[in-house]
Amino acid sequence: MPSWFALLIFPGFLYAVPMGWLMLWLERKILARLQSRIGPPFYQPFFDFIKLMTKEPLRRASGEDIFYLLLPLLALGATVGSLTLLPILPSSASAVGDLVLFVALVEVAPICLVLLGFLSRSIFGQVGAIREATLTIATNLPFITALIALAYASGSLRLMEIASNAPLATRAIALLALLFCLPIKLRLNPFSVANAEQEIYQGALTELDGWRLGLWELTHAVEWVALSGLIASLAVPWRSGQAILDAILFALLSLVLVVVLTVIAGATARLKLLQASRFYWRWGFGLALLALVVSLFL
Amino acid sequence: MSIWEILAENLRQGVVTLRYPQRVPPPARYRGLVQIELEDCVGCASCAYVCVSAAIHVTEERETFCWSYDPAKCTFCGRCVDACPTSALQMQAECPPIYHCAGALAVTYTRAYPRCEGCGKPFKVATQILRQRAYTEVSGEVETLLRLCPVCRQKEAIKSMVEARRIKEATR
């Protein structure tokens, strides 16, 4: 399969953007139903995006403008790039060490968010950036440890080989540890500390407006696809061999993850920064360490 | 009740949001649109004076006055109702209808001043309610005098004073 296909069609732009919007909608809809509200129609994220893209953003000091353009674009590009590495189809282009590249690309968006927060020179943006940075460190500890456990257990740094070779015990524990990391990476309750709407006005995003915010929302949608996709593609070793079937299985698993994450988000309230990072250092890291130990001895 | 039970209950109960035109019924003593009983209005403009959001305007012409009210500006504070000396203003007990342009519910009423029974000029008359307020008992004489304009009333007063003086001098 050529790499342009992965980047532009599946699981790149053509799949990821509508799927991301569908996930954003599903999150809002399920949350609404859990709270006895109606919730938005399924095309709402698309309309939100179109509306934001047609808005003229506020003019900023000349030096800042370029960063407000480049940082969301960089985050979007990196996140879509990380998608192309997901081992979904048996024919997926798989290079040595694409696991490392995946981790690097998936981390670009949070780093851009931190930079945007500091760039905003708003107190809320800066607090949001500090929180995002603290939590990125806290969550990457279990995230990377779990991936190391998977890589060690399957003896490879290729995502495709990890997906097919990882032993069941390690895979189950490591994927659970990865699942632990998703709410914080997607900034969902109870770990929505960095983008807390009510207390710090969306944190680092507080000064984003117009198409800049639109681009960021798009990045966030693609982040949903990439991070739920990582777990969905690593969860099942079996591949049918038919591209369509594999793609449908992958999409369904991703949507199940969205439902799980949303129900957890709906049932919990926001933690404090200290509580959230302590949770990851203690329980997330503990679980990932267990996966590592299991991978070493089994 | 754990959060899971609450969420399950919410799911079971379904959507509680009311869709237009369904509405929650308004509570007792709800303050809706301001309504005027034009027959009782004397055109004193107290309502326009106390209106904080300038939703009520009273304009005076020579023979008529206009009372206009724009609900789009109204804050429904009810000060106009409290200030009205003749209790001509009331607030509706129902929610205002939904409207799409700002001035859609604006109303303007025009009323001609009553005419003086003496000279026929228009003047601001004291209505029944004001009379009750001003005098403990309204005699027939007061009643006739109040149907006259201030100028005619002055003339009547001078006439009766002159008459009284004449009678006093005649009896001396």
Task: Report a brief summary of the structure.
The complex is a heterodimer of chains A (298) and B (172). Chain A has 298 residues and is an all-alpha fold. Chain A has helices at 3-8, 13-34, 44-54, 62-84, 98-106, 108-119, 123-154, 159-165, 168-185, 197-200, 210-235, 243-267, 273-297.
Descriptive report:
Chain A is an all-alpha fold and 298 residues long. Chain A has one domain (3-297). Chain A is built from 13 helices and no strands. Chain A has helices at 3-8, 13-34, 44-54, 62-84, 98-106, 108-119, 123-154, 159-165, 168-185, 197-200, 210-235, 243-267, 273-297. Chain A is globular and about 55 Å long. The mean pLDDT of chain A is 89. With 172 residues, chain B is of the alpha+beta class. Chain B has two domains: 27-112, Alpha-Beta Plaits, CATH 3.30.70; 114-172, no CATH class. Chain B is elongated. The chains are: A mainly alpha (298), B alpha+beta (172).
- The number of distinct helices of chain B, counting runs of at least 4 residues, comes to 6
Work out the largest interface and the residue count of each chain.
A-B, 10 and 11 residues
Q: What is the strand content of chain B?
A: 5-15%
Number of domains of chain A: 1
Number of helices of chain A: 13
Measure the end-to-end span of chain B. 99 Å
Q: Give, in order, the helices and strands of chain A.
A: HHHHHHHHHHHHH
Query: Any idea what the radius of gyration of chain A is?
Result: 19 Å
- The unreliable regions of chain B are none
Strand-pairing-aware structural class of chain B: alpha+beta
Q: What share of the residues of chain B lie within helices?
A: 25-40%
CATH architectural category of the largest domain in chain B = 2-Layer Sandwich
**What strand order characterises the main sheet of chain B?**
2-3-5
| Name of the CATH class of the largest domain in chain B | Alpha Beta
User: What is the share of helical residues of chain A?
Assistant: over 70%
Point out poorly predicted stretches of chain A: none
- Rough outline of chain A: globular
What structural class is derived from the secondary structure elements of chain A? mainly alpha
Q: Which word captures the global form of chain B?
A: elongated
